Structure formats: structure tokens, C-alpha cells
Amino acid sequence: MSFLPRRPVLALAALATLFAASCATPLKLRGLGNDGLVVGRLKSVNPLEVVVPKIENASGQRSVPLESLRAEFQKGLVRLRYSPLALEFVDRNVQVTEASYMPGTLGEQASLKVVVTGWDTSRWNSHANLVVDLDVYLLDAIEPQTSRALWGGHATRTIDLSTQRASFVSEGAMLQRAVELAVEETLASLPARDAERGPTTR
């Protein structure tokens, strides 16, 4: 009969314990639920400067806070190490409507096109639930077709603030938090920029 040395046995037991613990505690994955958002040529282009044009509202709901959404998308890009141009600079230098911005107009490498396709507030007053549908694309300034997008697709985010409702000082503050979460959860699927490389010269 053969026996394993004591130390290897203890090591195996420790590994088994760690494995069991990791299985018992599910990890929260970034971008979970964003199955419609796909990475395209993002890594090869590696854009630095990004324009966030005015957001298009195709939801049929006039209550969509477009400016708040736009500002949050810009902040989200900064957190991911992109360099979005200031919204005031964009609006001052390009007089465009929601859907008419031509990528590359301001010399940027990419633009973030966002279209709100759904804004369901049917359970907002009663349960503080908001369902947001977005078409969002990071478009290459040189090849701006959505079929050639660097990243993007469709995202549906359901925001539930029912357990936090009492902590907000106003309905406006609660709506702002919902906007922040919707954008944060959408951009969770966008890979951070590779800061070690410059944008691809083409």
C-alpha cells in the first residue's frame, strides 16, 4: 500500500476548499445581460478621441432625459480610458440634429451613436422600475457604417430602484440615478481602451 506525503494531502485539501468556495459564490460579470452588444474591430482601431453626438429619441416618449443620458455616456467613456470631446465643444462647432452627425467631422477617431428605442415607465410610479432599450454603436470615423461598428448593438436594461426609493430626496434625483445605472450597465460591455497603444493611423 502506498501513501501520499502529508504536505501534498494538505495542499490538495486546501485547493478543494478554495474550489468549493468559488463555486458557492457566483461572480458578478461585467456586461451580464448585454448579449446584443458585440465587439467588432475595436482592438485594431483603438480609438482615442470620441464624439458623443446628440442622442436620438425613437421611443415615442417625450419624457426621455436625452441630455442626462448623453452626459452619462460621455462620463462612462472617460472611465474606460477614452477621450470624448467636450459636449459644449461639439455643439458649438457642429450644428446638427439628433441623427445627422457625420463621424470624423471634428477629427476624432470614433463617435458613439446612441438611439433610445424604448423608454418604459409603466412601473416607475408604482415600483420605481424603468426599462430602457438602446441601440448603441461605437462607429469608426473612417468606416462609419453600423455594419462595421467597432462595438455595439442593442441593449435592454431594467432598472429597479424600489428598495432605494426612500433614500432619494426627489423624483428627479431618483430618475438621474436610473439614467446613471442604465448607461453604466450598457457600457459594462465596452472593453476599456488600450492605453499602451495610440490609435491606428490609416
Q: How are the SSEs ordered, and which strands pair?
A:
Elements: H1 6-24, E1 37-39, H2 42-45, E2 49-51, E3 56-57, H3 66-79, E4 83-84, H4 87-93, E5 110-120, H5 124-127, E6 129-140, E7 151-160, H6 171-187
Helix pairs in contact: 3-6
Protein described:
This protein is α/β, with parallel strands linked by helices and 202 residues long. The protein has a single domain (29-187), classed as Rossmann fold (3-Layer(aba) Sandwich). Helix content is 32%, strand content 21%. The protein has 6 helices and 7 strands. Strands 1, 2, 3, 4, 5, 6 and 7 form a 7-stranded mixed β-sheet that branches. The longest helix has 19 residues, at 6-24. The chain is globular and about 50 Å long.
* Beta-strand segment tally: 7
How many separate domains make up the residues? 1
Examine the secondary-structure arrangement and name the CATH architecture: 3-Layer(aba) Sandwich
The CATH H-level superfamily is ABC-type transport auxiliary lipoprotein component
Distance between the termini: 69 Å
What's a quick, concise take on this entry?
This protein is of the alpha/beta class. The protein has six helices and seven strands, in the order H-E-H-E-E-H-E-H-E-H-E-E-H.
Key descriptive features of the protein:
202 residues, alpha/beta, seven-stranded mixed beta sheet
